[in-house]
Design goal:
The protein is mainly alpha-helical and 250 residues long. The protein has one domain. The chain has ten helices and two strands, in the order ααααααββαααα. It is globular.
Length: 250
């Protein structure tokens, strides 16, 4: 569930270092964060995305949440998630996870057949839990490095690897069912608004507790991405002994 993913992102941020330096970008006091060599540029894109969100997306998402009954908005979320589950099943299989791949495939069949085309989620009640996977995770499993962290205009946090395969990850979508570009645009906008409405509570909480929203979101994204790639059990970082910590010799 995408709402659960948002909560996991927040938890990762709280556990992984939401205390960020407040030194201005480019100043000597600001150390280059590991994996983020383009921080100054990323911050500019982040600010642009934030301005668009505050001016357009967040108000529309709040209006959507106000007028849509909970059952209806949950149904929209379920339909889009059911399409994503098809791609998740394929990526499970591409990673060699045969058992979970078959389970995800069965999940799609159950929800499409008995869940009114995906509006309902009876598969979860049957124990077929959603396990999202994407092509970026598949490439990571096969050894492709993530590359630097990057903030994409309008799309938000990503990495170089995940940016290149993003079109494949969004290919399976109800937009494919549209008969003309107007219908396709409407379905795409509905998806964006639905996702944003599910993130309203999380972003409001981040605004309240984060000293530096950019660092908070970056660290949360990278921590959660690592957990996704390693199925919730990322390797521990190797301990490096600092000679400066040794007691002075007598």
């Amino acid at each position: 569930m995408r709402r659960l993913a948002a909560l996991l992102l927040l938890a990762a941020a709280l556990a992984g270092g939401g205390c960020a330096s407040l030194a201005p970008p480019g100043s000597p006091e600001r150390a280059v964060a590991p994996g983020d060599p383009w921080e100054d540029f990323n911050r500019q894109v982040f600010a642009f995305n934030d301005a668009v969100d505050q001016a357009v997306l967040a108000p529309v998402a709040k209006a959507y949440r106000f007028v849509m009954p909970d059952w209806a908005s949950q149904g929209v979320t379920n339909v889009y998630a059911n399409f994503q589950d098809v791609w998740s099943a394929a990526n499970h299989l591409l990673q060699g996870k045969i058992h979970s791949g078959l389970e995800m495939g069965m999940r799609v069949i159950v929800n499409t057949s008995f869940g009114l085309g995906g509006l309902l989620d009876p598969a979860t009640d049957m124990g077929l839990v959603r396990r999202p996977e994407d092509l970026g995770q598949t490439l990571a499993v096969w050894g492709m490095p993530s590359g630097p962290f990057v903030v994409l205009p309008l799309f938000g946090p990503s990495t170089v690897r995940d940016s290149f395969v993003r079109p494949a990850d969004v290919f399976l979508n109800p937009v494919l069912l549209a008969e003309d570009w107007k219908s396709a645009l409407g379905l795409a906008l509905l998806d964006v608004i639905d996702v944003r409405s599910n993130l309203l509570g999380t972003t409001e909480l981040v605004d309240e507790i984060a000293l530096d929203r950019y660092s908070f979101v970056r660290d949360a994204y990278l921590a959660r991405r690592l957990e996704q790639i390693f199925d919730g059990a990322p390797p521990l970082e190797p301990f490096v002994d600092d000679p400066g910590d040794d007691p002075p010799s007598r």
